[in-house]
Batch of 2 targets.
Target 1
Amino acid sequence: MIATYSILKKNNIITFIFFFIATFVFSCQTNTQKIDALVKDTEEPVIISQDVEWLYTKNGTPSYRLSSPKVLRFVGQIEYIEFPLGLEIFTFDNLGEHEAFMKSDYAIQYLEDKTIKAKGRVLLENYKGEKLETESLFWDEKKEQIFTEAPVKITDKDQIIIGEGFESNTSFSKYTLKNTRGIIKLGQVDQADQAE
């Protein structure tokens, strides 16, 4: 009788442990599924647009024009707009004259802090014909500043400058290169090519 009671007691304990583990596992799966569903809701765009062109103004004067083949808008804790196929931005001065041009393969715009992060073959060009090429560039609309810590190449009619870290105003008319790695005078390259 004591042996039977002991076996029943062991079986009850084992059954209780098994039931507890099964309940824990299934409840975790349910919670995980709920969490996945919530995450999926926040990761899906609320608006998908094709062939977009937006004109931004300041006091009725065009400030910049943005165009992109595809735009995805996301709403959640952080609201942002994604440009998975890249974008082009044209900036204008106070008289409405073209100042600068930027394009990239991919970009994301954070709406709260009014910043754009451009990635992949980023090109920035000003009205003087100076060009900056890099793989990553930030555009801060509030501070009216463009910057990166990535390697950059700046080309003008006389030279090519290679460096890292860059800051500029949004018209790319005044800029600072943090670490210059090299300068190539284009006239010297042409002379060297002719000598050969």
Note: The helical segments are 2-43, 186-195.
Target 2
Amino acid sequence: MPTPRRPPAPKPDGDAPSPVRVLKKYPNRRLYDTRTSSYITLADVKQMVLAGEDFEVRDAKTAEDLTRSILLQIILEEESGGVPMFSAATLSQIIRFYGHAMQGVMGSMLEQNMSAFAELQKRFVAQSAGLYDPARLSPELWTQFLSGQPASLQGLMGSYVEQGRAMLEKMQEAGTLFPGMPGFPPPKK
């Protein structure tokens, strides 16, 4: 848990604190929150992610951006405990894209799909807000809820599926453009 929080120190020019929260990582592996002037844990960083807060992690000595590294650490901890999100096959497929001509496309595709899925989840939660009552929620009610979704939610799901189909077609084309590359089938004859 973080140490007691103090209000952020005003900037010399009197402006408000930066909208992007800056965390510093020290050689002793501790994270320091410059906004609250306190040390924090990975669990605190995870809470920032869950809250949708913008932040960046910088090496205290070199100012190198370590944000991705810290986020990957959080994912690793989540994958190690509880129920993992990624199967070994999925992780192997991701690794195969590193150094591949399609690496940039794969990263972009994953980002777009995650954004579309997050939007779908947000709409789903908004739609189901009044339905969740553990005493009332049954498989039958859940089926009724899913089948009664408005066209907007069904349209979003349809566009999500269409986006996946289009990306699959691009990936298959890439397989013919880059024959013999790991993760792609040989060209059709």
Note: DSSP finds six helices and four strands in the chain.
